Amino acid sequence: MASYKKALCSLLLLSLLFISIRAQHPGDEHACKHDEIEQNPQFADIEEDVSSLKEGRGLGTYSNIRIYPYYEFMKSSAPSSYASYVINKLVPPAIDYFQAALKIKYPVSGKLVLGSGVNSICERSTPSILKSGGVSADVFIYYDSEAVSGTQIANSKYCFLASGTKRPLVVRTMINRNMLPVTSDVLIHEKNMYTIMHELMHTLGFSTSLYGYFIDDNARTRTGHIKSVSIAGNTRKVIDVPPLTEKLRTFYGCSSLQGAVMENGGGSGTSASHFERKFFVYEAMASGSILGRRISQFSLAMLEGSGWYVPDYSYAEPFFYGQGQGCTFVTGTCSSSSSKFDEFCTGSSRACAPHGRGGGYCSSDSIMDGCKYYYPHEDYDCENDNGGDYARLPSVETYGRGAGSKCFTGTLNTRSSSSATSFCFKYTCIGSGSSSEVEVQVGSNKVTCTQEGTKTIDGYYGSINCPDPETFCDTVGKKYCPKNCMGRGSCVNGHCQCNSGYTGIDCALSN
Predict the structure, then answer these.
(1) Burial of residue 81 (number of CB atoms within 10 Å: 0-12, 13-18, 19+)
(2) Residue spans per domain, the chain
(3) CB 285 within 8 A of CB 299
(4) What CATH class has 19-213?
(5) Cut 0.85: pTM above it
(6) Buried b / exposed e along 342-352 (16+ C-beta atoms within 10 A)
């Protein structure tokens, strides 16, 4: 690959990129609508450092990606309090995460500059800093806002791609102020931050508009990785790139898996630009905003599969939805009344949500392909400081950010008549492997779970359901540092020790 001059080349028409996230509302949690916006991204002939192709550079010698956030349009479009929230609390930790988690294979040489002849980037006038002088960055993202009706929270699209590697260079992220609120609620703030991180994933290349531009290890355009595969009688889009496919095969225990199954619902802007929610319910790159989202190894592997980045997988969060369930988890079907996998449910009962952080009700939506799962509810989230207000046994349950409790199910009650529900109890995992035990703290009582089954507790009617200790301690109950402390601290024994100036269980907050 040759070097690329620092000048704007001919403008080429690309297909629409329009990525959106949907909000959820009670009674219609997963309804989504979006309006298609026509935009013609352009190619910029910037100089990229391609020396690694000649040197055979080891992965450890790549530089971390440099992301430049531009806020002037946000400041002019939003009330000052809203702009301050986005600029000071939402975007910086998200950018710090990706700058720590991603290395870039072909960085911009020198400054990222478009030149004096470029008068607009997407719908806005080109900032003077991009017309002359430039910025020390590999990606320039400008944040903007609007207040519109509908359920869309945010959308992102590309203004310029590199003419050589076709990697995103200049991107716009638009936030709908009506759907992403300024908040002091830690759980809503967490959802807001994952919205920004979700959009950053899109801006870096997780989009159906860019799959065709993915490159291999020799910087040649990848071919044959976008597949149409018959799954459960339906034709589905599947993305087959290394190391994503290999990781998924190992995860499911399915050596014949052809790649990552992409979303087939939601219309343009959602379909194919997200992982299929049926298989990736709380993964950050599934469609829809949901409590307890996580950036798993699979999202990072998609970015690595683009050929543009090298992830540090220590920044991947634990993900276990469907783990070890075999090929039929992907190829099989389920309905609102039947399913062979524990990940799915029937009826409308309350139990633990998939990530184990709290309770939720069995429900479905239009893009779950007929399957139902326990949709997490803020009232029953174990990290909700006010969760005790909604608890059956508030005097013995434990709620709060960093309180160390997880979701357990059972029929415990102080009355003889009781139904199954979810609880938040502190716990301790003891031992390892087949000798694992889970000690559950129920008020002054300690329940020791040595195997899956029910346990009664003196002074209470009903029982608590013991999970399989080995499985629980390796999944739901496993201690970990959320988002690997955002690149703002160190992970020590499953807890973040934040650098000076930062705080919170993930170091996302500033002192």
Answers:
(1) exposed
(2) 19-213, 335-474, 481-511
(3) yes
(4) alpha beta
(5) yes
(6) ebbbeeeebbb
